[in-house]
Each structure stands twice: as C-alpha cells, then as structure tokens.
Amino acid sequence: MAEHNYSGSSDGKDAIIKPFSLRFSDRNLEHKFQESWLKGTHKISRVWSGSALFVYITYSILPLYVHDYSNIITIIRFYIITPIIIISILPIFTYPKLKTVLPYAYFLGHISAFGASLYLFLHADTQNSLIFVLEMLVILVFAQNYNRILFSWTLVFTTSAIMLTIFGLLLGPQNHGIPAIPLIFVIIAISLTGVFAAYTREIFVRRNYQSIQVLRAEKLRTEEFAQKADAARRDTRLSETRIRSLAESVPDSIVTRDSDNRLIYWNKAAAQMFDYSSVEVEQIDSARLVAPEDRQKYQQAVARATEEWNGGWRRSSPLELTGITNNGEQFPVDLSIAFWRSGSQVFRTEVFRDVRDRRKAEQERDEAIARFHEAQKHESLGTLAAGVAHDFNNILGIMNGYTHLALDDVSEDSPVRQMLEEAIRAGERGAALVHQILAYTRSDENMDAVACIDRSVGESLNMLRSTLPATIRLDLQIPSLHVHIHADETRIHQLVSNLCINAAHTIGSTLGTITVSCEVENVSQRSGANVRRLLDAKNADAITTKHRPDGQGGKLWFGVLSPGDHVRLTVEDNGAGIDSATLDRILEPFFSTKEVGEGTGLGLSAVAGITLSARGAFAIETNAGQGTRFDLYFPVAEEGAASAEIDVSELRGTERILLVEDAAKLRSEVKAVFSELGYEITAVSDGTSALKAFENAPANWDLIITDQALPNLAGIDLARKILELKPDMPVVMVSGSTQKTLQAEAKTLGIAEFLVKPLDSVELVRVVRRLIDSPSARAQSAA
Amino acid sequence: MAKILIVDDELALRHILRLTLERAGHEVIEAKDGEVGAKILGIEKLDLMITDLIMPNREGIETIREARKCQPDLKIIAISGGGHSRGPDILDLAKKLGADRTYKKPFKPNEIAEAVDELLKQAN
Predict the structure, then answer these.
(1) Which positions ≥6 away from A555 have C-beta within 8 Å?
(2) Which of B85, B88, B109 lies closest to A404 in CB terms?
(3) In chain B, which end has fewer C-beta atoms inside a 10 angstrom radius, N or C?
(4) What string of DSSP letters covers A369-390?
C-alpha cells in the first residue's frame, strides 16, 4: 500500500523520506514538517544566531587591534562582509514572515563569511594564516550545525565551501605557508563529519515527526470513532426509550417472543390485563393467555401466520378470541400477530386488545337498532291500524245495523233469533277489538284529553263488578282524590277493565280477591325501589325485567317517570301469578295464555299503550302461586286542560284558502274544519290542478296549504312555482316526514310554515290565522 | 211521522237507517253527499237530519252549517267513523257547531231510533 499521497491527507503514514534530500514524498507532510521544524527551532535559533552574530562582529572588529592588516581587508571585512552577514542572519530571527528567504540568507551569509575568511587566509602571511584557517573551519562547523536549516541546504553550502577552498588553494597565492592538500583533506573531513551529523540529526527528527503524525492521526481517528460510537449508542438508547415508553403507554398488551417461544418483552398493560407478576410471566406460554376453548384456534393462527410470513412487515388481521386472566376471568380480546427480523433472529410480537367495551357498545348499538326497527314497525302498524279501524268501523256498522234490523223482523221463538243475537255479539266483540287495537297503537288518541281518575276508575269498577264471577271479591280503596290524569274516561275504563279481567283470569274458578287502590304520590329519588327504577329508565317505552332465580315470577318495569306528583293506581290479585317465561312476553301484542277465542291477547298491550299516552309508567311484581301486583303511575294533569273550550271565535275567518291533499279523508276533514269556521276553502287532490287554480287567479288566494307527497307535482315544487309568481304568498307545507333537509329546503324557499303529520286541526287553523293576520310574522318565519 | 234527511256516502248505511226510520213511521229522504243534501235542504222542509261527517264533495260539518242557515229549527244528528287527526274529536267539533247529538260508528240502529224520537218530542 505504498501510495503517493498527493491529495494532502494528514496521515502521511505511507510517506517515504527521500534518501538524498531527506524530504518527505508526501508534499503535505513535508510542508507541515517544515513548519513544525521552523517553529520548533525558533527559540534555540535565536540563541544560536545571537552568538553567531557576536562571533562575526568580533571577527570583523578584531583586525582593528591586530596590526599587519592592510586597511582594505578591514574595509572589506568590516564594512561589507559584516553587514552582509548581519542582514543575512536577521531573517533567522523572524518567523514566519521571512521563512522563504531563510535558506538563501543562510547560504549567502555563511558562504560570504567563509569566502572572506578564505580570501584572508590566502593573502595572509604564514604567521597569521592559521588564524584564518581556523576561522574558516569555525564557519564551516557553525554552518553545518546550524539546526534551523534543512540538510539539503547544508549540503549545498558544504559543497560550495569545499569547492571554493579547492579552487582557492590551487589557484590562489601560495604564501600562506600551509600545504594545500592536507588542508583540503582536513576541510573535507570536517565537512563530511558535519554533513553526516546534520544528516543523521535531520533524518532522526523527520522519522520522529512522521511517527508522531501517524500516531496523532490514529489517535484522532480513534477519538472520532469513539465519539461516533457514543453518539450511536445514545441514539439507540433514546430510540429504545422512546419505543419502550410507547409500548408501555399503550393500553393493549404487547408480548414479544423469539422463535423458540421464549419471552423477550412484555409490557405493563399485559401484566395488568392478564394479572401476572413479572416472575410468573416468564414461565407461561402465550397460549395460557387465551381461554381453553380458543387455545387451538390461537395456536393454529400462530402457525399459519408463521408459515405465511415472507420476511416483510406484515401484520395479521385481528383474530377474535376470548382471553383469560390469571384468576380465570374471561373477556373478549382481539389478537394481532406481527413478525420481525433482527439480524438472523426472527421475533413474533402479539398484541392483545381488550374489546369488552367495544363488544358491549356493539351489542347496545344492535339493540338500539332493533329497538328502532321495532318502533318503526310499531309506527307503521299504528298507521295501518288507524286506517283499518276507520273502514272496519264502517263495515261493522253496516253488519250490525242490518243484523239489528233483521232481529226486529224475526219472531220471538224463531231459531234464527239466537243466531242473529250471536252475530250481534260477535259484531260487538269486533268493535271492542278495534277499540283495543286503537288503544295499543295509540292511533286515535286525543292529546288533550284529561279525566278525573278516581271517578273514572270508580265507574269502571262498578260496571265490572257485574261481569266478574261471584267467587272473586273486589276490594276497592278509591278515595275521592278529584285528581286528573292525561287520559280520557274511555281509556281509563279500558285500562282498568283489562287489568281486572286479567286478574280474574289468573284467579280462575277458585276464590280470590282483586284489590284496586288509588293514591297520590310524589315521585322522587326518595321514593321506593320500583319508582326509582322507573325514574332511571332511558326511554318512554323501555321494558326491563328481573326474574326470580327459580323462574317462578319476577318483576317488570315499563316506561319512564319524571319527578313530580303522580297518581298511583294499584291492581293486585291473589291468583296464580305469572311465571318468568310468560312475564317476558306479557306485553307482546296478541300473546295470550288464554284459550283461543277467550281473549284477544291485546289486553296488556293496550294497557301499555294507554299508560304511554298518559305519560306514565308501571311496575309489575308477580310470584307464581301467590299473585300479581300492578303499580301504575300517572303524572297529575291540570284539570283545566280538557274543558277549555276551543275558542273558535278568534279562529274564524273568511279568507280564501287553497288546500292540496291527495288523501281523500284528510282532505275532507281539513276542508270541513275550515269551512265550518267560515273560510272559503277549495280542496284539490294533486299539484297540477292546484297550480292551474292558482295561476288562473293568483290574487284570489290568501293562503295555500299543501301536502308534500303529491302525484304529478310534489308539494315543494308547487310551492316554488307559486312563490315565484307571488313571493309573499303564505304557504303552509304539511309532510309525513321529519326530514331536516326537506324542512331546510322549505325554509330557504320561503315557505311560511312546515307542519308534520299527524295534523292537529285546531293547530292548523291557528297557524293559518296567524300567518294571515301578521305578514311580518310570515316574513320572519320565512327568513 | 216526520220528514228526515239522511246524508251519508255509504249506501248500506243509508239503507239501514231508512229501514229503521221507516219502521218507526217516518218519511225518509236520502242524499249521497253534502252537496245533494244542501240542495234538498233548500227545497224540502225537514224535521230532522242525520249526517255522516267525513264525506267527499262537501263535508257533514258544512252541511250542518248550511242546514243551520236555511232551517235553523232543524234537529241534527251527526255520526262518524273516527277522525284521522290527533286533534280534538271531530264529533266534539260537530257538537259545538250545531249538531244536537253525535254517535260513533258502529252504532245500534235502535239507539238512533230512540234519539230521533226524543229529539222530535223536544221540537214539539
């Protein structure tokens, strides 16, 4: 690896010392060496140069005190040579400014000094010639040992000096008295010695220097390396800390194992989730974290993942398992497996996520969706029921009517009579059924109805007494409360009858008692357990049950209560009670434990519907063989609400209204209400006719009421066209949907009011009146 | 022996009422909707009117109003199969606005007959 390094590396360990000039082959190293040489010899050179200067000055003055010297010599020596020497020595004192001049100055100074001595020697007589020889020798020695100058120059000087001597001795005057050849020999000998000394010294210094440089470079490299290693170690530690803190702060369990299944890492979450101490953890296999029935699944998954891993950063999709803690508690987990390589080792990281909460949330969501669908079904059922009821009532009316008439025409003893009577009874049952259905689906309830509960219950029970068998005692505890609830008399009758009929059924043909009581109670968190449970319920139609462990009964809570004054109606019997299985289904419509034809199965559904409409709730407590108790709570209603006469006078008017509604019955009804109140109302059944009617005489109309769902032209489009023609026309839109987008669109169009079906006719009239009376209100609601 | 107007869009119901009332000895005129009813009100002098409330072409309520206008002494019975709106009962409304009696379908023909007798007695 002997490269000539010209690029200037500071290394120089491969540099060679050229044998003749003693320079380094590495130019950079040579340069640095020279710098260091000069610097290093600086101080001592001063001393050396100082003494040299002293010597030369002395030599130049000396002749003044020694006679026999011609003046010319003195002049040359004193006035010429000495200054030259001084000037030439001066650079020696300065560094670095004149360092390039230095070798030349050295050479010039010393060779002129030597030359002058030589000249003096040659022209001296035998007496004094020795002095000058000695002078020459001194200069020679001096110059050779001057350590500030590189050997190469020393060599140059020495060679020049020898040349000069030989030249002078052979060609110069011979009266000095010293034999030439021996003198030449001496000079050469001394030169050689000096040169050799200088050579040795320099080579030694150079070698030293080179070694030091190499060592220094090595040291630097080592230091650099150590620093890098330190930095790398720091970085690693930092990233390790970072990753570890990440792993430790994550709520999921992270378990890392090597290919021999040895545990490498186990985070805090894992210890907490699975409840193992650090000692125990080392000893168990990951399979122990999984419930026994899922262990095979887990092991198969690990095996498959290992097989499929192709060396990349793939993470398996989460596997649903059941985890098991140290104590045997099971909980749902999602497991993800990832593999990674470090060097030649392969590691497996398993992440266990506790998904208890998520599963619960998913369950609740599914339940909520199911409930929502139930509610939707219920609502559509209600709408269906309402439609059916109306037509059914008509049909029943016809059937009953003819049957009654037929009965009149038939003689008392005719066998047909009984058949007709049965037919009538059946018809009445049909009407009752329709009534129950309507109560359950709450399709034709009167929102404002209010009735005195104690009176209604009392009346109802009076009527019931006669229908109940004699074996059943009716125990009444109904004080005169004069308190009202949000239900009309008919509904209260229905509720009480249904409950009592059910109670009678559970008593059967044995002796039994039905107790009905009524009381005012303030509902709050200080009330009994049942009430508190109802206060805490989430929805108005929430049903919760709690069964007896032996399945022979339990409790049921229906509805939700708000704190305040309530009427508690209790119906209690000592009949057969209700078992858990039946209790679960008891509020289900058409579910009945009675024989076919005996009951509709709608009794308690109707009770639930009526309770809901009355904004109440109830609790059932039952034990098989002992009896059942119903506690119904109804919020107290203001008596004034129902008997407030609808002040129709202020709703009357003579304005011209255009009604657009495709449902015939509703159209008739609304038209009826408005025309009774004096309005000139024109009803059409579709959008196109409405538009035509409007366009014929836009000024003829004071207000438009339109349904949204129309054939041909939808309500919103009709409204748009009308408002284009007459922007300040009050338009009332009626829709069966509560879609926010529709409402928003209506608002931006400028539709004055948006009502949702089912309609409250009086409310509709009020709205119409308001819109016609105050154009500013119209503008406000349209804004 | 009174002249009674029956206004109902249902043929069968009109028939039942006719039979019931004729058996009680009254004279019966039928109208299939409020418009026809109003025309008859303008022509004949009636003693009593029985009207359904929800009908196409002029409702019972309007017919009641018409009747009150041209024959203020007329006795009126209103019947209905139940309303479609969750508002105050339409029968209630009818009562407040002029009907003397209201009945919900399905009704018993005897009840109607009795009511007719009572109201006619009142009138005389």
Answers:
(1) A530, A545, A546, A619, A620, A621, A622
(2) B109
(3) C
(4) HHHHHHHHHHHHHHHHHHHHHH
Q: pLDDT tens digit string along A646-675? A: 555 667 788 899 999 888 878 888 888 888
CA angle A56, A59, A62 (to 5 degrees): 150
**Domain map (residue ranges) of chain A:** 27-219, 250-354, 361-431, 448-642, 646-782
Domain boundaries, chain B: 3-123
CB contact under 8 A, A401 and B96: no
Q: How far is B99 from chain A, CA to nearest CA, in Å?
A: 12
Question: In one letter, which amino acid is A169?
Answer: L
* CB environment A271-308: b (16+ within 10 A), e (fewer): bebbebeeeeeeeeebeebbbeebbebbeebbeebeee
Contacts with A668 from chain B: Cβ below 8 Å: 54-56, 59
**In sequence order, what E strands does A137-182 have?**
none
- The domain over range A646-782 is classified in CATH as 3.40.50.2300: yes
Question: A232-253 burial by CB neighbour count: b if 16+ within 10 A, else e?
Answer: eeeeeeeeeeeeeeebeeeebb
> Residues of chain A with pLDDT > 70: what percent?
87
Q: How far is B122 from chain A, CA to nearest CA, in Å?
A: 26
Beta-bridge mates of residue A518: A569
For A587-644, the pLDDT digits (tens) are 887 777 777 666 667 788 889 988 988 889 999 999 988 999 999 999 998 765 444 4
Q: Kindly list the residues from chain A whose CB atom is less than 8 angstroms away from the CB atom of residue B61.
A: 672-673, 675-676
CB pairs under 8 A between A and B: 128
Q: Which fold has domain B3-123?
A: Rossmann fold (3.40.50)
Closest Cα in chain B to A448: B88
| A10 three-class SS | coil
Q: What is the pLDDT of residues A733-742, one digit of tens each?
A: 888 766 677 7
Q: How far is CA A674 from CA A170, A586, B91, in A?
A: 158, 44, 15
Query: Max alpha carbon distance in chain A (Å)?
Result: 199
Residue matched to tokens 């001496």? A186
With beta carbons under 8 A apart, name residues in chain B contacting A609: none
Q: What is the pLDDT of residue A574?
A: 92
Residues of chain A in contact with residue B11, where contact means CB-CB under 8 angstroms, are: none
Instruction: Name the token pair of A172.
Output: 């110069």
CATH architecture classification, A448-642: 2-Layer Sandwich (3.30)
| Distance, CA of B87 to CA of B93 (rounded, Å) | 10
Contact A414, A408 (CB under 8 A): no
Minimum-distance CB partner of B16 among A391, A405, A675? A405
Give pTM, 2 decimals: 0.42
Chain B residue numbers touching A408 (CB-CB < 8 A): 23
Question: Given an 8 Å threshold on Cβ–Cβ distance, is B10 in contact with A390?
Answer: no
Instruction: Domain A250-354: give its CATH code.
Output: 3.30.450.20
Distance of CA B108 to the CA centre of its chain: 15
